[in-house]
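Researcher: Let's walk through a ligand-bound prediction step by step. First, I give you the protein sequence. Second, the SMILES string for LJ64HWYM. Third, you return the three-dimensional complex as structure tokens. Ready?
Model: Ready.
Researcher: Here are steps one and two:
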Amino acid sequence: MAVYTDVTEPQLAEFLDRYDLGSLSSYKGIAEGVENSNFLLRTTGGTYILTLYEKRVNRGDLPFFVGLMEHLAGRGLSCPLPVHDRDGNALGELSGRPAAIFTFLDGMWTRRPSPEHCRAVGVALARMHESARDFPLTRPNGLAPPDWRPLYESCAGRADEVEPGLSAEIEAELADFEANWPGHLPKGVIHADLFPDNVFFLAGELSGLIDFYFACNDLLAYDLAITLSAWCFEQDGSYNVTKGRALIAGYASVRPLDEAEYENLPMLCRGAAMRFMLTRLYDWLNVPDDSFVTKKDPREYLKKLRFHRGVREASEYGLEKAAVTKGMA
Ligand SMILES: Nc1ncnc2c1ncn2[C@@H]1O[C@H](COP(=O)(O)OP(=O)(O)O)[C@@H](O)[C@H]1O
Ligand SMILES: N[C@@H](CCOP(=O)(O)O)C(=O)O
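Model: Step three, the predicted complex:
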């Protein structure tokens, strides 16, 4: 469920008066999504997405997110383009919430990613990284390794309610991240949440990326690790090396990794799994069951964390160093 704020027809019609989009034909809440309220908006000028930003999104970050989408779309990456009102503003206010209108992207996200999907996602992620190189705004990652311990501590020692022994396991992992995180690797603007529900396909081809609301400046290879962890595991929790190989090869075909990035992949993947396990754990323990926020199972990411902990060398993800660092994969 992702319509947290109601919008009345007169409110929306008044909001639309500020744009050159024609008049309101219809609008309807979109159930998918977690953080914000989204509406499918039809006007006499076309079809759009209306987003109302909810409490968990910091208003001060909105110019970064909206500016990034505009920048990437301008570089030819397929992603929602913010629509400006007649005064040039991409951000307005509707029903007491910051609000923006975006172009509609055709396509659907895939529930069953294939190796071909994974390769296309790897290519798109690397293109995003390259296209954002000259984006002038910056935003620190609010969910970087130094934030993981406070997030864990805000779960008030209740991790063992999810699985006995989990608190001690998290403690040991956090100590390792604090001592060994490879913070020196190349940085840039990362998507930071490129899960299957944020990538659209149309007729088998990748048609666009959405949901840039965790985007920030951080390690580029960490974004690859997040994406690999989200796309290359099966329902039973097993790693699919064919998908992993395809995703990494797709990425490296646009942006080859450097040796240190490649060698640190197991640590980066463990970190990616920890980050999503912790945010899910926090919601699992703290968000009331009748709340609108969709809770996701932290144990899915606990399994992935354990898999990554067992990986001794990056080649176990499917590709040898020479292939990935030379971009010849
Ligand atoms: N530009 C767009 N074009 C088409 N559909 C979109 C677009 N933006 C969002 N959506 C739809 O809205 C849903 C929720 O969007 P998303 O950005 O993932 O929300 P949240 O930030 O709340 O997770 C998506 O799954 C998709 O169905
Ligand atoms: N991808 C995250 C949750 C964030 O959801 P999104 O709809 O904003 O992508 C997770 O799976 O934990």
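Researcher: And what stands out?
Model: The mean pLDDT is 95. Strands lie at 24-29, 37-43, 46-52, 92-94, 97-103, 187-190, 199-202, 205-209, 216-219.
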